[in-house]
Amino acid sequence: MAEPIHNSTVKTWIDRHRIGAFLAITYAFTWTVQGVLLASGMEPSWTHSILIGFGGFGPPIGAAVVLWASGGDLRQWIGQFFHWRIGIKWWAIALGLPFVILAVGVGLFIALGGPIDPRSLPFPGVYLFVLAWGTVWGGGQEDLGWRGFMLPLLQEKYSALVSSVLVGVAWAGWHLPLFINPTTTHGGWPLSQQLLWLVSILAGSVLWTWMYNSTGGSVLAVAVFHAGVNGMGVFHPADTEAMAPGGVPDPWLSLLSEVTGTIPLVAIAVLLITVYGADRLTNRKIPGSEIVGLGPQNSEKDKHV
After folding, report:
1. What whole-number distance in Å separates Cα of residue 74 and Cα of residue 67?
2. What's the start-to-end Cα distance of the chain, in Å?
């Protein structure tokens, strides 16, 4: 039986605009969830955090729809999240590099006069929960879309560095509702801190690309690395009372904390570009659309994003 014309037309349009369709669906899903949360006026809570994480499934949903419409291999695409055979070296880097980033950032924070209180550090075992939560619900789930779909498609036309920046810009814009909602962490940031966050997102995008390309397309490694970097904030020994006397954040100390957290990411990104080169950000073949079972687009592919 022939496929309905309207369904065929929609699928053809999506196939011709794979990245554009991916971004449209990704933003629509996440921004709808975030918009409902904002309108509800829900205060910070576990339910609030869970719903924020649910909104983070926009990228994999967007990728799944495009793969369905374009005849991609959904099983092969999802398999990237279970690709764990990457070697001890890369697991050591994925799990250990976040601690190096934290150590450098804390060292700079202390050197520049930032107040610390080691007694405020949580029980080390909390990190296991932070890592697990961040991998599957608190950020890592995004990577099946950003890194497991958008990145390999972009790398067929652009260098790894340019692709990283393009993903980073889309990734940053996707977070916009979090800055509008005053009940989120991002909602209380001043403009200077928002700009530094943007720099860290772009630098982080380079690191995530390096991890993805170097592990042969392991979204699992990227998600764990992502969760690890995000989770380091829990173990920063900054003296929160000194940074916010009377409950009012000290602008200088808040800025210092953000700057010293951003510098290590930028430094590592620059180092990776210097060592591996902007073209691939690795010393091995980089994944392309074949990693998600996609063939070439139709003849109009050069006319559309």
Report:
1. 7
2. 32
DSSP-derived secondary structure for the chain: -PPPHHHHHHHHHHHHTHHHHHHHHHHHHHHHHHHHHHHHTPPSSHHHHHHHHHHTTHHHHHHHHHHHHHT--HHHHHGGGG---S-HHHHHHHHHHHHHHHHHHHHHHHHTT--B-GGGPPPTTHHHHHHHHHHHTSSGGGHHHIIIIIHHHHTTTS-HHHHHHHHHHHHHHHTHHHHH-TTSTGGG--HHHHHHHHHHHHHHHHHHHHHHHHTTS-HHHHHHHHHHHHHGGGG--B-HHHHSGGG---HHHHHHHHHHHHHHHHHHHHHHHHHH-TTTSSSSPPP-GGGGT-----TTGGG--
Reported as a single tens digit per residue, the pLDDT across 193-239 is 899 999 999 999 999 999 999 999 999 999 999 999 999 989 999 98
pTM of the model: 0.93
Q: Can you read off the two tokens belonging to residue 144?
A: 């099946």
Mean pLDDT of the chain: 92
Domain borders along the chain are 5-303
- Residue-wise pLDDT for 118-161, tens only, equals 988 899 899 999 999 999 999 999 999 999 999 999 999 999 99
Place of tokens 């995004």: 142
Q: What is the pLDDT of residue 301?
A: 39
